[in-house]
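Please, structure for the following, as tokens.
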Amino acid sequence: MKIGFIGLGIMGESMCENIVKKHDDTVYAYDFVKEKVDLLVSKGAVGCADSVELAKKADVIISMVPKSEHSRSVYEGIRDVLDASKLCIDMSTIDPSVSVEIAEMVKTTGAHFIDAPVVKSKPAAIAGTLGIYVGGPEEDYEKALPILSYMGENIIRMGDNGKGLVMKICHNALVSQIQNGVNETITLAKANGIDIPTYAKAISYGGGQNFYLDGQAPKLDAEDYSTAFSIENMAKDVNICVNLARESGVRMPGEENALDVYQTALDRGMGKEDFRATIKVVRDR
């Protein structure tokens, strides 16, 4: 079974590399940036000139691109070379409704499609320990599972097409609100003479302990905003959540507050910084 991977960004690069290391057949790679393709070729992948060439050669086509419009463009571009022998796995974080539209378009060719967005960040992508939420038919999920296992260790099917993305958006929305709570309470603690290491240790003793603070406290204390997951990427997910909530008739004032923080960070030109840098917005307020 030949696998093709489209999109070799911060996450995609390491996800594709894990497939190259673990898969016993050809792995094709493509990105608009040639240097990224060359890097994967140096690790054992076969480079392709474009997505169409990759889709022709691969039995399984994986995409990991930034936004809804990019996913739509990928699958519109390769639609004419898809057929019933091909399985498409979009691991991008995009609007669930757009993913459903893409799934319906792909299925008109006879090909199969699942959404499989990931959680955790670059270190987990390197280690192959991502969490993966899948939306799509059970039989397609079962076929994809060994391939997804090259990249992640916690993999769960959430339901039909689009449901993996709904879960990913719910996950990141919760992270954004936990993060905002951490930012606000750190700011309050520091205003009263408690430093971040002491704050984090004390939080770990009670019900407030959380994965975000456990991982980020040393970097927050060092004011290290080097990027593993950018503000602009998290802002995209927060926006998707707010829009999905409105479409679903659900009020989420906590997430609207998180969106306000992220929008302020973007307006301040912080989009490329790591998402932990939102603490600067909360602190300055």
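The chain has a mean pLDDT of 97. DSSP finds 13 helices and nine strands in the chain.
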